[in-house]
Known about the structure:
Chain A is an alpha+beta fold. Chain A is about 20% helix and about 15% strand. Classes of the chains: A alpha+beta, B mainly alpha, C mainly alpha.
Amino acid sequence: MLKAILSQIISLYRICLHLFAKADTVQYPEEMPYLAPRYRGRIVLTRDPDGNERCVACNLCAVACPVDCIALQKTEDEHGRWYPEFFRINFSRCIMCGMCEEACPTYSIQLTPDFEMCEYDRQNMVYEKEHLLISGQGKYPGYSFYNVAGKAIKDKDKGEALNEAQPIDIKSLLP
Amino acid sequence: MIQLGLFYMAATITVVASLLAVTRYNASHALIYLIVSLLGSAIIFYVLGAPFAAVLEVLIYAGAIMVLFVFVIMMLNLGAAGVDNEHQWLQPRMWIIPSLLCLLLLAEILFLLNTSSHALSGTVVGPKVVGIELFGPYVLAVEIASMLLLAGLVGAYHLGRRYLLDMRGESL
Amino acid sequence: MEELTIFLVIYGTLLGAFGAAAVLVWFERRLLGFWQDRLGPNRVGPFGIGLALADVIKLLAKEDWVPPFSDRLVFIFAPTAVVITMLLGFAVVPYTEHLFIADLNIGLLFFLGMTSLAVYSVLLGGLGSHNKYALLGGLRSAAQMVSYEVFMGLSLMGVVMISGSFSLVDIVKTQAENGWFVISQFFGFIVFLMAGIAESHRLPFDLPEAEHELVAGFHTEYSGMKFGLFMLGEYLSLILISSMITTIFFGGWLGPSFLPDLVLDFVPPIIWFFAKTGTCICFFILLRAAIPRPRYDQLMSFGWKLLLPLTLVNLLITGAVLLWL
Ligand code: SF4
Ligand code: SF4
């Protein structure tokens, strides 16, 4: 009992000393706090080094999203490659959890350190692809999904082109 | 003169509040009127020159005992069903005997007031006097009251202990 | 002349108490901010002091909603009780030897009576809201305040024994001779402090409104100025308890006797009173910043198992010393 009371008194004293400590918070709109690049804020869709959309419309992000706020529709270009016809994120539901970023195999969907997304009209919180897609590569410069995964083109399957290794047989245990 | 006016005002409030307290169907409203009537009687005490009794009335009756009454009302959480019940119980013929008794008392008081002559006396009974009286001539009454309270305390502890033991699954 | 002074003191107290309560709204948040390494409200006016006014305007302009399921009479009556009783409590506070509204010979008991009546506002607020959180808050407060009233009253009896009077002016005068009661009645002071926090249900003992488990407790259903009255009542009781602690245990208007006579003569007594009361208020705010809220059963057992024996022993020792020494 005595020890408990003593600890209360000590905490009173310690807190009292904080009167002279510097504030940890800042005067926000005038003075911006530093946000690390990996801060989870507004979501962007990025492009690969060649300037093409990274997103392959695999829907993994939409599945991973715990609040189901991503909606997209797959379509194919002339090479049979997939890309999203529309890509919609409802930011009024998004909880900035970053699951979509982790699920994405192509580093396409990325969270950025921007959190100032206030709107008077709720409908404006729904971002379409033209709002989401940026022209840069985001946090992973130089990464191109197809250069890592390989791709099948006319007459040549995956791994058969010049300077390409055979794809790993994921069903086998052999090295 | 002012004292007389204060007295009659407080007395009127007390009587009206008491009447309302008896006749309300909603238990919580009745309680509020009862509190008001207690506060009124406290003022009467004060005007009559017994400030200590007045404050005790506020402190103990209005401040503690009535709080417990309200506490019980809250625990029961009567609501509309309670009001209906009261409607059933408080039928007009229920009032006959209590009113008769009250009238008798009133007559008695009127008689007393007519015969005795000391109206508002100017003597003030301070806390010190009350204390000396309580522990002088009336010490027996104080002791009896304290014994009673002790018995109540022990009884309450016994009941509470039963409950605690039951909760822990032990027997007495 | 005499009547004019009383008149002025009454209005001064009224305005001062309301003003201080409004300023405290800002001051408490600012101070809490400092103690929690934040900036606190600093936007409205210099140092953010305009927040006091802004808050009042906001409360007055808000919709004042009486829920249709509530018990109208009880619901509307409840918030007024705490403000009225607390303001009445100020009537017996002696600011200086000659500056007070009333020097009742039962001043201390009057103060206790007023604080005990303040319970009704919480109770009836909980009862009239017809809301289960409000009801739980009201129930808690009933048990908490009735029990802590006991310790509050008992803790002061040692002081009453020594000074032989319930009058607060006499109590302070006794302290001029005997030294401040905080030394001779230390345990009484501790218990009174705890009970004072519990009576004004401020953190850490704000179980009736514990927002973590009870939404807002007894004032869950209140909005607008009715809620404002509850808040006003809380700050008024904070000020009242602080000035009572000052008066009873810290020598009221007396300056600390270890200071040289020059200082004591120079500083007017009322400054001492307000300085001590202000320090006391700051201490209450520090308690809010530093101590976590206990569980409800812990609060009750703390009261009955620690504070009650402490006061009784204190009473016994004080009585023995007075009788035989
Ligand atoms: S951050 Fe989380 S909530 Fe937001 S879109 Fe991605 S997965 Fe969904
Ligand atoms: S997981 Fe990545 S590649 Fe797949 S649909 Fe989402 S953003 Fe596009």
